[in-house]
Amino acid sequence: MVHNDFDTDHRYCPSCRRYVRYLLSPQRGYCTRCAGPVQLFSPTDEVEFHRDLRIVGRSERDSQDRVRPSL
User: Which of 12, 17, 19, 21 has an alpha carbon 20 to 30 Å from 47's alpha carbon atom?
Assistant: First the structure.
């Protein structure tokens, strides 16, 4: 199990256009550099993440189709 801490955990700040350290409130995370709201991924990384999820989902479905239990 990986434990993140303040020094190693980063999120993307659209205002700074980079991954930054952030402070987390119950509602939202805020950049420690500019105090703007942060998000988990940059727009480019988010597109790539969702593309990878679709690829993994397809490969898992394909493997399940090939290995069907006989009744």
Answer: 21
pTM for this predicted structure: 0.69
Residue 31 in contact with residue 18, Cβ under 8 Å? no
Each as own residue / partner, the long-range contacts of residues 43-49 (CB below 8 Å, 24 or more positions apart, any chain) are: 45/12
How many alpha carbons fall within 13 Å on the CB side of residue 27?
1
Say whether both 7 and 36 belong to one domain.
Answer: yes
pLDDT digit string (tens) for the chain, length 71 residues: 566 677 789 999 999 999 999 999 999 999 999 999 999 999 999 999 999 998 877 766 666 555 555 55
**One domain, residues 8 and 32:** yes
